[in-house]
């Protein structure tokens, strides 16, 4: 069972892949630290470059995964130092991180968050190593009907857990799926929604989609923030950069509990680092906040979400590698990147392409250690990144976006399409949509339709096949429960409230 | 009562759903070996979209903060700039078009003329050599300058 890991280390320890893991960790931390560029943007910008470099699938996945985990480390910088979360996963980090920085403990706060990130990620990587092959064994039993039910489950779990407004999350996912239907239908060869434009026959390119949706819309959104004065400039004094062992040991309960919580939440499809951070923080507050110090600069309040969001980032690899269902927006992008290499992630990957699955998992071990070594001594250097002005950042994003999209087919149509999608993404964000469901829908929609049609072909059109097996029936029930339970419970609580008074 | 942004969006989405469904119905399929065909999936999605949008029309969320006039103008300016960058990308070549776009973008995001020009010169030139020599990406040299290079 551990064979794949040994082979994986063989892949991950080659000089090229080791170098890529290092580079990815470094770039990821930078991307995470830069205001407005989270893990998805970082990967969106780097992916076309990795593709043109002609890297083999496992190497580019190692690079992009290192960027992903690195960005989770980098996201804490601005949370702690400026009270501005670098990405969604780092929102909870501000609650106790910023007060610590204000008390002159910015350095130890950064150190502690690096250590708790490391421990959280390590717990999750161990979990990934143990559970992924087991889950893959179960997933081999999945037929088209089960996969279809699984995707329905993934979308319903996403609607409930992701974002504030379930309706908007669901609409975002449907829009994403619809965008995925553009192009020649693989089942029948019919052109759908191409409006006579030959450039659309192959569908909307994945790279065009994510760069438009994330990078271009980010440029437009940054314009808004550039109006506000005083958000860039002075950083608080770092103080000593290293965190004391005593301080880490004081938080050990919080770190380990949050690592486990983060991993489990990360594994659930559709829920990512931001949910994990929030759940772990509130759990820890309930468990150990005896003196009401959470929110005023309690180290445990910083360690908990940091451990959890890194654990969740790793945990979201479990469904992606074993079922082909991404656990978060970022893993959806990674899944799309794999599809560019004609690899469909899923249960067969552990047996058919062990170098990809094993190499990735092994590189997570290595990347995690690299990240700790980078982040402890270099916290001050990374903190300087925060002072990079927007007038450098925005043109750089624009150039990278244009080059990344232009080099796909060397034509301008893709660039116009990217700009159009960028405006669409901007409007969605202004209307309170989160973009992760859109990208998940876009990535999964095609597979969902294929599996549905395959299942119904097998049964000769009988819809019953979709819930005939125990696995698929269970998934349908779970999906419905997820949608109904929160609504039902809140109703029940509301009904009970007056009677207790 | 003010019409919430969500209401308008909901109505627009219902329109979109109708458009998608009509388009899907007009697809001409020849004899097919599978029972579902290319029409069903988009039509079901359109129905789901319309239902969700209907919920939003009746229960809109709070209105977000929309850009005021000057910001909206700058937003359009940035968009026009990016569009111009795209148009000029092959015409003027990567270096010249990026020089113009980067300088203008830097200005729009609050850099002084000197800083904007410096970024505008440095970034495209460094970028060009990085992309072409290190990464092996071929970038347009531009029709106008092709004869000189």
Explain what you see.
- The complex is a heterodimer of chains A (about 500) and B (about 150).
- The longest helix of chain A is centred in the N-terminal third of the chain and has 47 residues, at about 95-140.
- Mean pLDDT of chain A is about 85; it is low at about 230.
- In chain A, helix 3 (about 40-50) crosses helix 18 and helix 5 (about 95-140) packs across helix 10 (about 250-265).
- Chain A contains 21 helices and two strands.
- Chain A is mainly alpha-helical.
- Chain A has one domain (about 5-500).
- Chain B is an all-alpha fold.
- Helices cover about 65% and strands about 0% of the residues of chain B.
- The radius of gyration of chain B is 24 Å and the shape is flat.
- The model of chain B has no long low-confidence stretch (mean pLDDT about 85).
- Chain B folds into two domains: about 5-60; about 70-135, no CATH class.
- At the A-B interface, helix 7, helix 8, helix 18, helix 19 and helix 20 of A face helix 1, helix 2, helix 3, helix 4 and helix 5 of B.
Secondary structure: elements and pairs:
The complex is a heterodimer of chains A (501) and B (149).
Chain A (H helix, E strand, L loop, with lengths): L2 H10 L2 H19 L5 H14 L4 H26 L10 H47 L4 H18 L4 H15 L2 E2 L6 E2 L13 H22 L17 H6 L1 H16 L5 H16 L10 H17 L1 H7 L5 H12 L8 H4 L1 H22 L3 H7 L4 H20 L3 H18 L4 H25 L10 H31 L1
Antiparallel strand pairs in A: 1-2
Chain B lengths: L4 H21 L14 H19 L10 H23 L2 H15 L4 H22 L15
